[in-house]
Design brief:
mainly alpha
C-alpha cells in the first residue's frame, strides 16, 4: 500500500503526486490512531490473556467509533484543512482526502483483526489479510487511476480494505456477538 504515492507519481505526474500526498498524510493520522489502539490492545491482552474476549470486543467497538467519527470530521472539514496549503490544494486534494479518510474505516477493522490474529497465533490469517489489502489495493489502483485519476486511488483504497474486511467478517461477527 505504501507504493500508492509512486503509482500516482508514475501514472499522473508530479503535480498529482503532490496533491495526493497531502491528502495521504492527513488521512494517515487515522491509520496511526488505529495502529496505536491495536498496539495497546495487544499489550494489555498479552499481559492478561484471559481478557482477550472482553478486550477484543471493547477495542473493536471503540476503534470503529473513533475512526468513523474522525473520518467524518475529515470528510466535512477537508476544504478547511487543505486551505492551510493554498487554494490549489482545495481544488485538487479534497476528493482524495475524503476518499482516503473513508477508507480508514474498513482499514481500522483490518488493523484490529491483525492484532487479534496475532494474539490468537493466527499467522496465516494475518498474512492473508495483509496480502488481500496489498494486492487488491495495488491492482485496483493500476486499473482505476487511468480512468479516474486521483479518485481512482481513493476508490482502490476503499475497495482494497473492504476486500480484506471480508476475510475478517466471521471473526468480527463472533467477537461482537459473544456473550460478555
Amino acid at each position: 500500500i505504501r507504493l500508492l504515492p509512486l503509482i500516482v507519481f508514475n501514472s499522473l505526474g508530479g503535480a498529482a503526486a503532490a496533491f495526493f500526498f497531502q491528502g495521504w498524510l492527513i488521512a494517515n493520522t487515522l491509520r496511526l490512531a488505529s495502529q496505536s489502539l491495536a498496539t495497546s490492545f495487544t499489550v494489555v491482552v498479552a499481559a492478561a490473556p484471559d481478557t482477550l474476549a472482553r478486550n477484543a470486543r471493547h477495542t473493536l467497538i471503540h476503534l470503529l467509533l473513533l475512526v468513523a467519527a474522525a473520518a467524518g470530521v475529515f470528510v466535512l472539514t477537508a476544504p478547511l484543512l487543505l486551505s492551510l496549503l493554498g487554494r490549489v490544494y482545495i481544488e485538487n486534494s479534497v476528493a482524495i482526502l475524503r476518499l482516503l479518510a473513508l477508507s480508514s474505516i474498513p482499514m481500522a477493522i483490518n488493523v484490529w483483526f491483525v492484532a487479534y490474529a496475532r494474539l490468537r497465533g493466527w499467522g496465516r490469517a494475518m498474512m492473508i489479510n495483509y496480502a488481500i489489502q496489498g494486492i487488491a489495493t495495488i491492482a485496483l489502483a493500476l486499473l482505476l487511476v487511468p480512468l479516474l485519476g486521483l479518485n481512482g486511488i481513493g476508490l482502490a483504497c476503499i475497495l482494497g480494505q473492504v476486500a480484506a474486511v471480508m476475510q475478517t467478517a466471521g471473526t468480527v461477527r463472533e467477537v461482537l456477538t459473544a456473550q460478555p
